[in-house]
């Protein structure tokens, strides 16, 4: 089977320019000072120091009191 450049289906397929959009977009939550019914519990996990620094910066940029509250809202809203 040889490639036939005159084939209309092949021409159409090659000419299509589809815009691919990311399927998952990260939505950063907005700080809400409302109290919740669910209590929190302490957990320990490890992060690289550069990631922790970026996490703290993001939390402050979005007016969260702590990185933990920021992560909690971020994951809860996914």
Overall average residue pLDDT: 79
Main sheet: strands, sense, barrel:
none
Class by helix and strand content? mainly alpha
Helix percent reads: 25-40%
Instruction: Give the helix tally.
Output: 3
Distance between the termini: 48 Å
Question: What is the tally of beta strands?
Answer: 0
The H/E string reads HHH
Shape: elongated
* Low-confidence regions: none
- Rounded to the nearest angstrom, the radius of gyration is 23 Å
Outline of the structure:
The chain has helices spanning 8-15, 49-61, 67-76. It has a domain at 47-77. 4% of the residues are buried.
Topology, pairings included?
Blueprint: H1 8-15, H2 49-61, H3 67-76
Explained architecture:
It comes from Weissella hellenica. This is CopG family transcriptional regulator. The chain has a domain at 47-77. It is built from 3 helices and no strands. The chain is elongated. By secondary structure, it is mainly α. The termini are far apart. α2 (49-61) packs across α3. The model has no long low-confidence stretch (mean pLDDT 79).
What attributes characterize this protein structure?
78 residues, mainly alpha, 3 helices, 40% helix, elongated
């Amino acid at each position: 089977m040889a490639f036939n450049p005159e084939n209309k289906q092949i021409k159409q397929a090659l000419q299509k320019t589809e815009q691919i959009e990311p399927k998952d977009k990260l939505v950063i939550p907005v700080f809400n000072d409302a109290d919740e019914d669910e209590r929190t519990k302490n957990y320990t996990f490890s992060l690289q120091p550069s990631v922790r620094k970026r996490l703290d910066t993001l939390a402050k940029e979005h007016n969260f009191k702590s990185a933990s509250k920021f992560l909690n809202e971020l994951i809860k809203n996914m």
